Amino acid sequence: MKVNNPAVIASWASLLDPAIAIANAPTVPFPQWLTDFTGLHEWPHFDPPYIPLDFISFDLLPPVPRHTQGACGAVGPQWCLFDCANCVSYDDVYTCPKLSQTFDDGPSGPTRQLLAGLKHRSTFFTLGLNVVHFPDVYHETMARGHIMGSHTWSHKFLPALTNEEIVAQVQWSVWAMNATAGHLPKWFRPPYGGTDDRVRGIVRQFGMQTVLWDFDTLDWKMLAENAPNSRTERDIYAELDKFKQTNGGRGLILEHDVHSRTVGVALNIASKLERPLTVPQCVGGIDYIKQFPRD
Ligand SMILES: [Zn+2]
């Protein structure tokens, strides 16, 4: 299945700031249950170790060739690549009955600015590495009723990774969310929209569902280091207005809560939406796979 409104896939290197992980220790304590399970005592840096899980079976995964970002000719269309072909599978969420926002790459400082101005519930796809460094922002996001989803541990392009590396990116993200807030996420967004039937297969074994988009603000291009201001707020609003006219009020918007400028765009867009929905509301799904009681 192919999405009619082609989403231009982000080609940035992520706004995840390497300085955060190197200069500051995580503030979420490494839980004893995770030490018992992994034998480790601290949160990983950018390349988390693979820990085998009894509910993950690589034998069940389709033999999709690995590809790096942009190397689209290396993989046939039968493997349903979103990053190359905007292909979506039967259980991917990529649109919403009401035009709604989603926010990737937090939590971080600018997330607070967004939270202060948002008048409706939304969906945040978080990076595990950021979650353990900004747990207060994560808790505030949750407390305001927003849905927390996973965006991997450290923002790697998943189709280029081995099965073990993909599992590690997902499992450490889930553990970061569980250690911070006592829940297991249901909704998963692959960085750069990088997914194929092998990546989806692993995500499904975690019980999670892939969430994509049908309108990409490309808000990160406003901040591109090699081409600053190659995109402006005005470009985004003009394209979104056009999308609204052609898409009948439906849609799922991709944005980033990582910079005051992208947050400014987000708040402006938010002020014009009519009763937007969270991702689970878009499809009648559950908020989390499990929420553990907190002391
Ligand atoms: Zn991202």
TrEMBL record:
GO biological process: ascospore wall assembly; carbohydrate metabolic process; chitin catabolic process
Gene3D superfamilies linked: Glycoside hydrolase/deacetylase
Cofactor: Co(2+)
The UniProt record lists the keyword Metal-binding: yes
Name of the featured protein: chitin deacetylase
Hydrolase keyword on record: yes
Gene Ontology molecular function: chitin deacetylase activity; metal ion binding
Origin superkingdom: Eukaryota
Natural source organism: Suhomyces tanzawaensis NRRL Y-17324
Signal sequence bounds: none
